[in-house]
Automatic annotation (TrEMBL), chain A:
Group of enzyme by EC: hydrolase
Organism encoding this protein: Boseongicola aestuarii
E.C. code: 3.6.3.19
Gene Ontology terms for molecular function: ABC-type transporter activity; ATP binding; ATP hydrolysis activity
Keyword Nucleotide-binding: yes
Protein name: Maltose/maltodextrin import ATP-binding protein MalK
Record key words, sorted: ATP-binding, Hydrolase, Nucleotide-binding, Transport
Keyword Secreted recorded: no
InterPro entries for the chain: AAA+_ATPase, ABC_transporter-like_ATP-bd, ABC_transporter-like_CS, ABC_transpr_MalK/UgpC-like, Mo/tungstate-bd_C_term_dom, NA-bd_OB-fold, P-loop_NTPase, Transp-assoc_OB_typ2
Alphabetical list of SUPFAM superfamilies matching this protein: MOP-like, P-loop containing nucleoside triphosphate hydrolases
Span of domain ABC transporter: 4-236
Family label: Belongs to the ABC transporter superfamily.
From TrEMBL, chain B:
GO biological process, alphabetically ordered: transmembrane transport
Location in the cell: Cell membrane
Cellular component GO terms, alphabetical: plasma membrane
Protein encoded by which gene: sugB_3
SUPFAM superfamilies linked: MetI-like
Protein family (similarity comment): Belongs to the binding-protein-dependent transport system permease family.
Organism per entry: Boseongicola aestuarii
Protein name: Trehalose transport system permease protein SugB
Organism superkingdom: Bacteria
Domain ABC transmembrane type-1: 107-297
Assigned keywords, A-Z: Cell membrane, Membrane, Transmembrane, Transmembrane helix, Transport
Taxonomic classification: Bacteria, Pseudomonadati, Pseudomonadota, Alphaproteobacteria, Rhodobacterales
Signal peptide, first to last residue: none
């Protein structure tokens, strides 16, 4: 395992910016999650680190080495792709053994067997080892493809939304398993996801990307509780943070044009009167969709709430996040 | 009846489709069956009218195909009784076997030239197709068009220049010359077909292999090639069929050492009268290698091996 440092990394594809002046340090043993919408440069970052793309400018350092001129094989990284995961002409066993058999690792046969068996049992695919890779369900394929990374002991694991195609239960199981494996191995991991729960539960660090730039980098709690911009604030949180003009509630410091309130940061029973539009009972909580002076607001309520559409309810922000006209945080 | 199904055709349409396919198969197989049967007929049966469907089979055609025979005097025949079963067959016509015919040699030439040029076309074609498919090549589209354009003129248009060139280069009537010629013709087809197949193989597999510790060439060899097997097999069959059956250039450029079977088989007719059974026997044997090759590769033709492996 190793520390990975990106220095002023830039990459564009024709006129499209992939990554612009990206600098970040992925500490040894850290679990870093990259967040951002489609096209923000998350996958490009992984591909630049792995060497599948060549940077236009900037440097990638892995374990104290500038790897700019090294091939993907020499960089000693493992990557889990979002798609096209398995070699279709090989069995599951051969897929898992494939990286170990490479000329660079050239692992002895008995060790290959031991590692493959170990990883297969962790990912619960031992009974499928002799299947053709094509004779698996989508979830099994993705587990094998994660397994193909885990059989190795690389400088860094790169994972591109590895759990996005799995069903809810498997996703939860694997999420916990991945975190456990990472913690046990002390592995360095760079992980791309859209999923808030994955980001919050697994990450030691979260990096938020916007149009190829790193806009905030910190612990998951910092990103959630202390976002430095409207953009970052709206990346995490489900339901999404409510953004309303500052004058809806009034009493804000000067310069503040918008405020952001997470659904759980809305006080009920005082303040402005809003109308209930819809109530969603989720079991452990209820979501209230409100309309306040033409602004849609979502908040949460007791699971046994008796509100019905058309009811009126007074709400007030509790520790709102304040932003200026550009969306920059004002504290 | 309400058992309509989108995926499962009705019994009646299955029967109809089945009958249609069988009929079509019969129609296409009649000439083949005719050739094969004629190979086992006696010369008289072969030209009888109305044609005989039932006849007494004989290996005369095959014996005549593989041997040259001479007529002998009665004294000679009486002094030398027939030694083998094929001796006895020719003895019925008061002939003796003078020696083997050229068919074996010509057939071997066909095998060497046919499979040699197929191998070369596939080898070069796969490398070129991979390069066209994966690398940024300046003027790639123009180059591809240029490669294809070699197939646009009728081959006979270049017959004379090639004839003269081969003469100058000493390639006339050589195995190498014929292999190069057929490779030259086939390679455009091979590049185009294989490029299509390689385009279909997602780049992600190779990228995964690169990260798994392999070089570009190893990734090509271990990941792309096995997945292109279907395409390579079908392209190889097309190349082989062309090289195997080619007649015009073979007539023009070969006469002795490198003559292939197609120009040789018709020459049988001139030797011992209209010996149709021998011609038919030659055609039957000539058919076999391509048939066997196709059957061996059938598995790859019928099954898309990457089917279902790609998660979208």
């Amino acid at each position: 395992m190793a520390e990975v440092i990106l220095k002023d990394l830039s990459k564009s594809f024709g006129n499209d910016v992939g990554i612009a002046d990206l600098s970040m340090t992925i500490p040894d043993g850290a679990f870093v999650v990259l967040l951002g919408p489609t096209g923000a440069g998350k996958t490009t970052t992984l591909r630049l680190i792995s060497g599948l793309e060549k940077a236009d400018a900037g440097e990638v350092w892995i374990g104290g080495r500038n790897v700019g001129s090294e091939t993907p094989a020499q960089r000693d990284v493992a990557m889990v792709f979002q798609q096209y995961s398995l070699y279709p002409h090989l069995s599951v066993r051969d897929n898992l053994a494939f990286p170990l058999k490479s000329p660079i690792l050239n692992t002895p046969a008995d060790e290959i067997e031991r590692k493959v068996a170990e990883v297969a049992s962790v990912l619960q695919i031992s009974h499928k080892l002799d299947n053709k890779a094509t004779a698996l369900s989508g979830g099994e394929m993705q587990r094998v493809s994660i397994g193909r990374a885990l059989v190795r002991d690389p400088s860094i694991y790169l994972m591109d939304e590895p759990l996005s195609s799995l069903d809810a239960k498997l996703r939860t199981d694997l999420r916990v398993e991945l975190k456990r494996i990472q913690a046990n191995l002390g592995a360095t991991l760079l992980y791309v996801t859209h999923d808030q729960i994955e980001a919050m539960t697994m990450a030691t660090h979260v990096g938020v990307l916007n149009e190829g730039r790193l806009v905030q980098y910190g612990t998951p709690r910092e990103i959630y509780e202390n976002p430095n911009s409207l953009y970052v604030a709206s990346r995490l949180g489900l339901p999404r943070i409510n953004i309303v003009p500052a004058d809806v509630f009034g009493g804000m410091p000067s310069g503040v044009t918008q405020i952001g309130m997470r659904p759980e940061h809305i006080q009920q029973g005082e303040g402005q009167e809003a109308e209930v539009q819809r109530v969603e009972h989720l079991g452990d909580q209820a979501r209230l969709h409100l309309m306040l002076k033409g602004h849609a607001i979502t908040t949460i309520a007791d699971p046994h709430t008796t509100y019905t559409p058309g009811a009126h309810i007074k709400i007030a922000p509790k520790n709102p996040l304040c932003f200026d006209a550009e969306g920059v945080r004002i504290s | 009846m309400s058992s309509f199904s989108v995926t499962e055709p009705s019994k009646r349409s299955k029967w109809f489709a089945g009958t249609l396919v069988i009929l079509y198969a019969l129609i296409t197989m009649v000439p083949l069956a005719w050739i094969m049967l004629t190979g086992f007929k006696s010369p008289a049966d072969a030209i009888s009218y109305p044609p005989k469907v039932l006849f007494e089979p004989t290996l005369e055609g095959y014996v005549n195909l593989f041997t040259t025979r001479t007529r002998q005097t009665d004294e000679f025949l009486a002094a030398n009784p027939p030694q083998t079963w094929y001796d006895r067959i020719v003895r019925e016509y008061d002939m003796v076997i003078a020696g083997p015919s050229k068919f074996g040699e010509r057939f071997l030439n066909s095998v060497i030239i046919g499979f040699g040029s197929t191998f070369l076309s596939i080898f070069l074609g796969t490398l070129a197709a991979y390069a066209f498919s994966r690398f940024k090549i300046p003027l790639a589209d123009d180059l591809l068009f240029f490669i294809l354009s070699t197939r646009m003129m009728p081959p006979i248009a270049v017959a004379i220049p090639i004839f003269l060139m081969y003469r100058q280069l000493g390639l006339s009537d050589t195995h190498l010359g014929m292999i190069l010629l057929y490779t030259g013709v086939n390679i455009s087809l091979a590049v185009w077909l294989l490029k299509g197949f390689i385009d279909e193989i997602p780049l992600e597999y190779e990228e995964a292999a690169l990260i798994d510790g392999y070089t570009r060439f190893q990734a090509f060899y271990k990941v792309v090639l096995p997945q292109a097997a279907t395409g390579i097999a079908s392209t190889a069959i097309f190349c082989l069929i062309f090289a195997w059956n080619e007649y015009a250039f073979a007539v023009l450029l070969t006469s002795g050492t490198a003559q292939t079977a197609p120009p040789f088989i018709p020459t049988i007719i001139g030797v011992g009268g209209l010996d149709w059974p021998a011609v038919a026997a030659g055609a039957t044997i000539f058919l076999l290698p391509v048939m066997i090759f196709t059957i061996l590769l059938r598995k790859h033709l019928l099954r898309g091996i990457t089917f279902g492996a790609v998660r979208k």
